[in-house]
Amino acid sequence: MNFQDILTEQRELFNSQKTKSLKFRKIYLEKLKEVIIKNEDLLYKAIYEDFGKSKFDTFTTEISFVIKDIDYYLKNLNSLAKPKKVRTNIANQLGSSKIHPEPLGCTLVIGAWNYPYQLSLSPVVAALAAGNTCILKPSEVAENSMKAMAKIINENFPKEYLYVAEGGVEEITEILKLKFDKIFFTGSPKVGQIVYEAAAKHLTPVTLELGGKSPAIVTSSANFEIAAKRIVWGKFLNAGQTCVAPDYILVDENVKDSFLDSLKSYIQKFNYQPDSEHYTRIINERNYNRLVKLIDPDKIFFGGKTDSFTRYIEPTILNNVTWNDAVMQEEIFGPILPVLTFKNFNEALLQIEKGEKPLSAYLFSDSSEEKEHFISKISFGGGCINDVVMHLSNDYLPFGGVGNSGIGNYHGKFGFEAFSHQKAILDRATWGEPDLKYPPYTDKKLNWIKKLL
Ligand code: NAD
C-alpha cells in the first residue's frame, strides 16, 4: 500500500469539509464502537496470542477504555466543538471574541505494544472526535493485535478517513517522511526523539506519550496494608509492562521489613503462578532476556522463578537495591520490583529529582505536609496519593508526561484539544469606533491612549 496515496485521499476528504460535520463524526464514532463490540472475541484472541493477556484484563484495561472514550465524545462533542466566548479588552470595543476549536487536519497515531488496543484506539477516537482524518500505525511488536485492528478497521472504514497501516520500522520510517498536521506517538523516549525529529522537518505538532522510571514512595505514616495491596496490583498488572506501573519503591528504612512482608503476602494472595489464567507473559524473547538479566540473584527477597519457553517471570521483589544497580539504570517494564530505602523524606525527593522527570509518581502517606512537598517539590507527569496507576482512568484529569516522559497530554477534553487548533476570532462592530489609533498621531491622542491602556 502506498502511504502517500492514502494520505492524499485523506487530505482530499478533509478539504471537502465533510469530517468537520458533528453528525459525520458521531456516525463514525458509533460505527467504531459497533465494530469493536462485534469483534470483541477476535480482539481477545489476538492479544492472548501475543502475550497471554486474559479476557478480564483486556476488557478492563483496553476495550472498556476505548468504549468509554467513544461514549464520552458522543455525549460531549457538541459542547467541546462549540466556539467559546471570551472577554474582549477595551482596545477592541465594540467587538466580541470567541475561540473556535478547529480540527488540525490529517493525523498520524503511532501506538505502543503493551496496551495495543487502548494506546492505539484511544488517540484515534480523540482524533476523529476532533474532526480529523487518521492513519494509525500500531506497534508491530504485538503483531496479532496489530493485524486484528487492521482487519476490523480497514474492512469497515473508508481508507480516506481512517486507515490502519501494518508494518514495522521500515514502514513507519516511510510514513514519517510524509507531511501530517499532527503526530500522536506513544512509546519510548528513544523512538520519541526520532518521531520528534521527523515531525520537525514539516513543523508538525506532536504529542509524545513516553516512559521512564516511576517511583512509589512509602513513608512511615502510610497505611501499609493498602499501600502493599495497591502497589502489588499496579506493578504486576500486565506483568509490569505498564508505562505508569511503579518502577521501584522508596520506603522509609524504619518500616521496610514489615512493608516487604505485606508486599509478599499480597503477591501470594493474588496468585501470579504459571498456572494462573490472568497473569500476562512477557511480550517477546528480547524483553524476556533483558528482564532476566536485571534480576540479581543475591538481592531476591521474593520470587525469581522464570521460564523461557512460556516467557513467564514471577513477580520478583529485590531487596537492598542501590541506585547504582543495573535495575536502576533503565525503565524496567516488567515484573521486577526493586526496593530502596530513605532516612528522611526530603532525601527521597532529592534522589528522584536527580533522575529524568518520571511519567508518574506515587506517594503513600497520611501526612499533609509530605503530600504537599511531594506535589510541589518534584516534577512528574501525574500520579496518585495513596494509590497507583488509577489517575489515568479519570477522564477529567489530563494524562501525559513532562520532560523526558513526554510532551502534551490527552484523555477526555484534553484529547479533543490535543487534536484541535484553538482559532482566535475577534469580531468587530463596524460602528462606534474612536479615531484614537489612526494617524496623524498627536500628543492628545497619546495621552488618551495612556489613560485607556
Ligand atoms: P517503542 O518506542 O519501541 O515503539 C513505539 C512505536 O514506535 C511502535 O509503533 C514502533 O513500531 C515504533 N518504532 C519503533 N522503532 C521506530 C523507529 N526507529 N522509527 C519510528 N518508529 C519506530 O516503544 P514500545 O516498546 O512499544 O513501548 C515501551 C515504551 O513506551 C516504554 O518506554 C513505555 O514507558 C512507553 N509507553 C508510554 C506510554 C504512555 O502513555 N506514556 C504508554 C505505553 C508505553
In short:
α3 packs antiparallel against α6 and α9 crosses α10 (about 255-270). α5 links the parallel β3 (about 105-110) and β4 (about 135). This protein is about 40% helix and about 20% strand.
Architecture overview:
The protein is of the alpha/beta class and 453 residues long. It is built from 15 helices and 18 strands. The strands form 4 sheets. Strands 10-13-14-9-8-15-16 form a 7-stranded mixed β-sheet. Strands 5-4-3-6-7-17 form a 6-stranded mixed β-sheet, with helices on both faces. The model has no long low-confidence stretch (mean pLDDT 97). It binds nicotinamide-adenine-dinucleotide (NAD). Nicotinamide-adenine-dinucleotide binds at residues 110-114, 119, 137, 139-141, 168-169, 172-173, 186-188, 191, 194-195, 209-211, 243, 331, 333, 359, 401, 406.
Q: Any low-confidence stretches, pLDDT <50, length ≥5? A: none
Q: What portion of the residues fall into strands of 2 or more residues? A: 15-25%
Task: Give the neighbour order of strands across the main sheet.
Answer: 10-13-14-9-8-15-16
Total count of strands: 18
CATH class of the largest domain: Alpha Beta
What characterizes the major β-sheet? 7 strands, mixed
Radius of gyration (Å)? 25 Å
